[in-house]
Amino acid sequence: MSAEATGPASPGAPRRRGRSRLDLRRLGRAALLGSASRDRMPDAIGHVVEAHRAHHPDAEIDALRRAYVLAESSHRGQMRKSGEPYITHPLAVTLILAQLGAETTTLVASLLHDTVEDTDVTLDQVRDGFGDEVCYLVDGVTKVEKIDYGAAAEPETFRKMLVATGNDVRVMSIKLADRLHNMRTLGVMRPEKQARIAKVTRDVLIPLAERLGVQALKTELEDLVFAILHPEEYTRTKALIAENERASDPLAVIADDVREVLREADIEAEVLIRPRHFVSVHRVRMKRGELRGADFGRLLVLVNEDADCYGVLGELHTCFTPVVSEFKDFIAVPKFNLYQSLHTAVVGREGGDVAEVLIRTHQMHKVAEAGVVALGNPYAQPAPEEPGPDGERADPTRPGWLSRLLDWQQAAPDADTFWSSLREELAQDREITVYRAAGGTLGLPAGATCVDAAYAQYGEGAHFCIGARVNDRLVALSTVLRDGDTVQILLAPRETGSGPDAEWLDHARTPAARIAIKGWLAAHPEEPVSEPAAPRPGLTVAGARHSAANAVVDLPGAAVRLAGCCTPVPPDAVTGFAVRGNVVTVHRVGCPAVGRMAASGRGPVGVHWVDSAQCRVTLTAESFGRPHLLADLTEAIAIEGVAIVSATVEPPTEGRVRHTYTLQLPDAARLPGLMRAMRKVAGVYDVSRAQHRAAATS
């Protein structure tokens, strides 16, 4: 199957070149009236066999014949809402997979995928007739029950789908083909139900097809959804494509020039014009405005060897004017969905049209179109792994993103969290790989931070993370990671660790991290503080505890803590919120934490500053023990012009040392610079405000 321009089947709609479309009524008649001879392949499955042997010439098709006979006899008498015999559905799904190049086991399971659920056929019968592999796939598909498009049913349905896919990605291949055929025949349903199904397809199944690399299914699903959810834009795009087909094609001229260049360079290559599908044309129009002839397609250059891809690239950039900003190398750095190609763009020799060019080998093209379907049976070589305690087996083709989904879906506390997290995860369109300092790699979505890496590596153990090193440099947990970074997560002992802060949610990008942090915060709620009946004179911290830089709060007896997330100092506009331990945390008014506190229903506590430029503050420096550390920290403080009132150094624990300083600042505005200067001292990995004043030690 190709990703050429197409749309939902309708009178006058252009069809994909090279894809056979079945007449379902003819197929139904063939299913009912096919040859009665046991020695001949039934006529209705001839299309499947033809497509299958185009990819697998030596395939044994006896199992296909027997599977068809069982499916047809089991579904006999059942009809689809469109009026065709039900057997036309598994036949059409199987043909889709056959055209993608699926191996025989997948096709047999596809023919039988509805028999256990909708007929009297049992899994034992499937196992006895077709073996354990087919039974495993049919069982996996059957566990994903027919979707009831209600708000509560969708999340659980897709949770089952993910678990089944995690055990064998071929399960998802069958479900995607099943959805494609259902979308092709969606016109018999009510418009509101069409819209509901299209939205689920858009939000979950299309991203899953993209993640599994099955571009041929993904692009057609996109067009079918586009036609249902955006009919006006679809009609306009369809008219633009039809109008372009009647005009001269500048890509044809550029393609001839490319063939001539490659022929002269003695590079064996096939140069094709690859029309864009409807959604792709729409996206280009939204990005560029008015479309030119070359915008309706791209050139596809297919070669035999990887090295030839770079040879073609060199010739094109030598003989044409390249558009440098359009070059991408997905061969050296493949996408996380197996996709490999060189992307470039060149200016044609005549007319100045810019043509986008994709360069790949024939094998790369097969994988780009079919994704995991092109990988065949992942258990064929070597022998299948033994199932796990719950019947689960590790699929060698399982990509990292799927493993992450399987991990966090178990921790999702409710259906709504799972559903929103699933769509958030699938919305990520790029993945990075970071290296663990102790060995091994972590796959993370682009934009992930050290918080995400901590939870990806340690799970709930990351609750006690106190810092990180990236490429041997101490960094904040909020640091965004880049592809190829080496990450070392620093953990505190469980008995001394304080657990995650709500601020970590601002830095977490992965559902696994966010779900784990929210679970901790829910299990360790802050103690509520009763509001007084009437405001009383506030507590001036400067006269009692000196860690709040002269902040005064309207809550008697409360200790005051300046929030480390926004570091408020005079004359910032501030507000406070009561937290556990009879403490009021003071934030800048614009701090994101203020919005979260207000949204949770907490009432603010009044705060104001004492009229004084000077302020006293207590800072805690967390560091690794080393010689001269105290002297270096003292020197850094002195250089900032800050007086040390007292200092405490706790005994080292597991090579880590905590220094607590009570400091007198001549101007509160110097506080952020002071904290930055202390963090720059070698060995210091965090500097924060202390909740309570240190005991005076000199």
**Average pLDDT score:** 77
Helical/strand content category: alpha+beta
Instruction: Give a quick account of the main beta sheet: strands, pairing sense, barrel closure.
Output: 6 strands, mixed
Beta-strand percentage range: 15-25%
Q: State the end-to-end CA separation.
A: 78 Å
Helix content: 40-55%
Shape: elongated
| Number of helices in the DSSP assignment | 24
Please give the number of β-strands. 21
Unreliable runs, pLDDT <50, ≥5 residues?
1-41, 145-153, 381-398, 527-547, 691-698
Rg is: 32 Å
Describe the structure.
By secondary structure, the chain is of the alpha+beta class. The protein is 41% helix and 16% strand. The strands form 5 sheets. Strands 1, 2, 3, 4, 5 and 6 form a 6-stranded mixed β-sheet that branches. Strand 19 and strand 20 form a beta hairpin. Helix 2 packs parallel to helix 4, helix 10 packs parallel to helix 12 and helix 12 crosses helix 13. The N and C termini lie far apart (78 Å). The N terminus and C terminus are likely disordered.
